[in-house]
From TrEMBL:
Residues 286-407, 823-939 form the ABC3 transporter permease C-terminal domain. Residues 17-213 form the MacB-like periplasmic core domain. It comes from the Bacteria. Belongs to the ABC-4 integral membrane protein family. The chain crosses the membrane at residues 284-308, 328-355, 380-403, 424-443, 463-486, 523-543, 817-841, 873-899, 911-929. It comes from Bifidobacterium cuniculi. The lineage of its organism: Bacteria, Bacillati, Actinomycetota, Actinomycetes, Bifidobacteriales. One of its GO terms (molecular function) is transmembrane transporter activity. Keywords: Cell membrane, Membrane, Transmembrane, Transmembrane helix. One of its GO terms (cellular component) is plasma membrane. This is Putative ABC transporter permease. It holds the Pfam family FtsX. The keyword Transmembrane applies.
């Protein structure tokens, strides 16, 4: 029976082609998902091994707490955060036996490297990272390839990736955009690391400058960790690391509130955390893999239905000569296994190839990956197993039909009528109604007064629950009820063809109704992809419409000025110059405040001027006078925050900020201690020189004197910043809530004026984010723009945008994400198109004699083509309409459920949905070409003859 199955598979190999493609695409997604995850893990592991190269790491074990003593450092991933550690601990660590050095590495991520052609490197992508490295404090994992490390604050060395991206080389003058604006540096060296840096531009600067920038940014001289090295050049193995960590723990004792980890432990923890943050990527790809395989299973089922129908007489003969139903079932399953193996192998190779292309594309875009894209043995095994499993599942129902059909019935060449679909239709429609009611409830809970039903228990539930339940019921309900909907849908969608093409149109709509299950299964494959695309289209359209509405109705500014880089702020100097440009009626800045709590709550706080609330973007719905409240030094609170925390107009709240200031007393003490240390060391060397001179060792005495002079000279060149000590200072003010604003622009933040902000927060804790400018009446906007851009040009990263550009910049992220998802979903829709071709081919196969008779009585080849084209178009439009209706409904409800996330306006992209319908008609026409060619290629006499 296995040989019979293999022989049948060989004879039907042409009909397997589309199923093989479907399996290959689905398996390619699966293998690609696994491979991409492994490549990303490999990249992260190699980066951690290269970038975090210390043998032991010492950090604070003190958990960050809030005013009530509760842990306040819990990040989004659930990890507890710890206080920073004093860098002076490094001196203590270096005195421990077995420690070669203990290093405090400072870095700064708010800079932008400028290319040789004057444009920014990675303006909106991976960051430019400045690292404090020099010959005295090298990075063990970095290897100089040319030149030398920086020797002063005006020299830099570039990582190989940064050099390639910028076009700079040793000897060139480079520009770095720093907090105070662009500054010039000389490139004195290039270096490389074993691992690619995923697009980040690494720049080595002097440790003194790195510390200065880090302290200004982080507002403290403390650091997260101190790296301890047992050997300056050779990494210790795991056993030696643990031994060194044990010595450090013993030396520090229990009184020190520190945590000591081996380098292996620290790297593993950091890698795990990074992988968890990027862990959404692999499941996302797997979702599309499941969709593709789900859609592909319909094609496989139709393919084997066709094969079983063609081979039914052969199976009947096998049953007649004694073959059992199980043996007949086995012959079909053997073909499915062969199909799965072939499709899976192609899918593995396709997934590997696609991932190599993705890796190459990311390298070209500046996001270099050094991890391997090759699939592992388990990736191949899983891909083949999944491909075979889907093939066997798809073939199981046709195989059961072949195995259980009575031999006499199987001998009959006519197609047996389908079983009634009324019961199935009733069940599916009931599920659809229940799903629609669940979505109505979710919509009511999200948009109504909170009481859409008479039952308090129902009204109190989270709207996400009925949303998810409704989605499951509606999708499954549509698939279950599909066969019962084919007849009515065929009549409705076939009305136009029936009247335009009376003969071929009527035949086409009736032909689809003769195989309701098959038609419904094919339409379901298309329905799933179109539903998801339509839902995402509504969400994306609503998000962009909401953003546009905020700008169009809530903002009267002619220009918005912001940094084109995600890692840099606007420079105060540039903003002050812009505000002095002739032709400006009003301007207002928006500064983000950090380390601030309001009423004991960690909420977004921003600094602005009354002009924002009177001229630039006056609020439409407010309780109190927001502009006057801001001018009087009161709080302007967003409505959502007021609702969340129960804040009322006139209520007194504590505005508190914990900042880091210079500790004058500690700094003076540190300077005195250093000076005393230098004097003692120089005095000791001079005393030794005198003793050597008295002993007659003139050369030794001169050597000691030279050493003493070197100690004094080194002290004169020490970085003063390294002796600056800081302390945490907490300031607070009791402030009145002067206004509560409902407009979306202000709904989730607290606004204060500059005077109030400066009472509790240092200016270094205030990041200048945006500048809004309104032109004076009669001002030429183009001239004003040119004047603003002239000021912005020397800063490289400052973008001047009009309203349309501002809206476009806010919506660009939505479009980028949507483009990726559409590209992934496109493959599932392509698979669904193959399903339409397969279904038409099966219909043609079953109606060979019928089509032959039509041609014999005078039906032209064009009419046969037209009939099949109309069938294909109706089938394609049917699946598309179902997807559009359900997907649009889902998008509207989702937008309502998540309205508090900023989706204030629901926008259905009708143009996009009409485009889907037009594409459905085109898909139907294209899908009908091959089956129609096969139908008219058969000679009439051969088609009508009895088999």
């Amino acid at each position: 029976m296995i040989r019979i199955g293999l022989r049948d598979a060989k004879s039907h190999m042409r009909r397997f082609v589309m199923s093989i493609i479907a399996i290959a695409l689905g398996v390619a997604f699966v293998v690609g998902s696994f491979c991409f995850g492994e490549m990303l893990d490999s990249q992260i592991d190699s980066m951690m091994a290269s970038n975090s190269d210390a043998d032991v790491y010492v950090s604070s074990s003190v958990v960050k707490t809030d005013d009530d003593g509760e842990p306040s450092g819990t990040a989004d991933d659930g990890k507890v955060q710890y206080e920073d550690i004093d860098p002076d601990v490094a001196g203590t660590l270096e005195e421990i036996d077995g420690v070669s050095s203990a290093k405090v590495f400072y870095n700064y991520m708010g800079a932008v490297l400028v290319k040789k052609d004057g444009t920014a490197v990675n303006g909106g992508g991976a960051p430019t990272l400045l690292l404090g490295i020099d010959a005295q404090q090298p990075w063990r994992a970095a290897k100089l390839t040319d030149g030398h490390w920086p020797e002063n604050d005006r020299e830099i060395a570039l990582h190989a990736g940064a050099a390639d991206q910028s076009g700079l080389k040793v000897g060139d003058t480079a520009t770095l955009v720093l907090p105070d604006g662009p500054e010039q540096f000389k490139v004195v060296g290039t270096f490389d690391t074993d691992a690619a840096q995923m697009g980040a531009s690494l720049v080595a600067i002097s440790p003194a400058l790195a510390r200065q920038l880090a302290v200004e940014t982080n507002h403290t001289d403390k650091v997260g960790t101190i790296g301890v090295y047992g050997d300056e050049h050779t990494p210790l193995d795991a056993k030696a690391q643990e031994a060194l960590a044990g010595k450090i723990r013993a030396a520090l004792g229990s009184t020190e509130q520190v945590k000591v980890e081996t380098g292996e432990q620290a790297r593993a923890d950091d890698a795990k955390s990074t992988k968890e943050q990027l862990g959404f990527i692999q499941p996302l790809i797997m979702v599309f893999a499941v969709i593709a395989l789900f859609v592909g299973s319909f094609i496989i089922a139709n393919t084997f239905t066709m094969i079983v129908r063609d081979s039914m007489r052969g199976y009947a003969l096998l049953r007649s000569v004694g073959a059992s139903p199980a043996q007949v079932f086995l012959t079909v399953v053997v073909q499915a296994v062969l199909l799965g193996v072939v499709g899976s192998v192609i899918g593995v190779l396709l997934g590997w190839g696609l991932l190599e292309l993705i890796a190459q594309g990311m390298n070209q875009m500046g996001y270099a990956l050094s991890g391997s894209a090759a699939p592992s043995t388990m990736d191949v095994v899983w891909g083949v197993v999944i491909g075979i499993a889907v093939s066997v599942l798809g073939a199981s129902i046709p195989a059961r039909t072949a195995a259980t059909a009575p031999p006499i019935q199987a001998m009959n060449e006519t197609v047996n009528p389908e079983k009634p679909v009324r019961t199935r239709g009733a069940i599916g429609i009931a599920m659809m109604v229940f799903g629609a009611l669940a979505w109505w409830l979710a919509y009511g809970l999200a948009t109504g007064d909170g009481k859409p039903t008479p039952w308090d228990a129902v009204n109190g539930m989270d709207s996400v629950i009925p949303m998810a339940l409704g989605a499951v019921c509606l999708v499954i309900g549509v698939i279950v009820a599909g066969p019962a909907l084919v007849g009515p849908a065929g009549k409705i969608l076939g009305w136009v063809p029936d009247h335009v093409f009376p003969v071929t149109g009527r035949l086409a709509s009736r032909n689809l109704a003769r195989a309701k299950r098959r038609t419904a299964n094919t339409a379901a494959a298309l329905f799933v992809g179109i539903a998801i695309v339509s839902c995402l289209g509504v969400i994306a359209g609503s998000v962009k419409a909401s953003l546009n509405d905020v700008v169009d109705t809530g903002m009267d500014a002619d220009y918005a000025v912001r940094s084109a880089s995600m890692t840099t702020a606007l420079q105060d100097k540039a903003v002050k110059e812009m505000e002095q440009v002739k032709g400006i009626e009003a301007s207002a800045t928006l500064r983000q405040m950090y380390g601030v709590t309001v009423g004991g709550k960690d909420v977004p706080a921003a600094i602005t001027q009354p002009a924002l609330l009177t001229t630039i973007a006056p609020p439409q719905v407010q309780d109190g006078n927001a502009a006057k409240a801001l001018e009087d030094g009161q709080l302007v609170v967003g409505q959502s925050l007021a609702d969340k925390y129960g804040w009322k107009l006139g209520q007194r709240l504590e505005l508190k900020a914990t900042t880091t200031d210079i500790d004058e007393a500690a700094t003076a003490k540190a300077q005195e201690a250093y000076q005393r240390q230098v004097e003692e060391q120089a005095g000791k060397l001079q005393a030794e020189a005198r003793q050597l001179a008295l002993a007659g060792d003139a050369d030794g005495a001169r050597s000691k004197v030279a050493q003493a002079q070197q100690v004094v000279e080194d002290a004169q060149h020490v970085d003063p910043q390294s002796l600056v000590k800081t302390k945490e200072v907490t300031r607070s003010e009791q402030v009145t809530v002067g206004a509560i604003v409902e407009d979306y622009l202000y709904v989730d933040c607290v606004l204060v004026n500059q005077q109030l902000a400066n009472k509790v927060s240092d200016t270094s804790w205030q990041m200048l984010d945006q500048l809004y400018i309104k032109a004076a009446p009669g001002t030429d906007l183009e001239t004003l723009r040119k004047d603003l851009e002239k000021i912005a040009k020397p800063y490289y990263t400052i973008a001047v945008m009009d309203k349309d550009e501002f809206k476009s910049s806010m919506a660009s992220m939505v479009d980028q994400v949507l483009a990726i998802i559409y590209a992934l979903l496109a493959l599932s829709i392509v698979i669904a198109i193959f399903g339409i071709v397969n279904t038409l081919a099966l219909n043609v196969s079953e109606r060979t004699k019928e089509i032959g008779l039509l041609r014999a009585v005078g039906t032209s080849n064009g009419q046969v083509r037209g009939m099949l084209a109309i069938e294909s178009v109706i089938l394609s439009v049917y699946g598309t309409v179902l997807g559009i209706v359900v997907g649009t409904f889902a998008g509207v409800v989702l937008c309502a459920v998540y309205a508090d996330q900023g989706i204030s306006k629901i926008a259905v992209p009708w143009g996009q949905l009409l485009l889907f319908l037009a594409l459905a008609i085109l898909v139907g026409l294209v899908a009908s070409v091959s089956p129609a060619r096969r139908a008219i290629k058969e000679p009439v006499l051969d088609a009508v003859r009895s088999e």
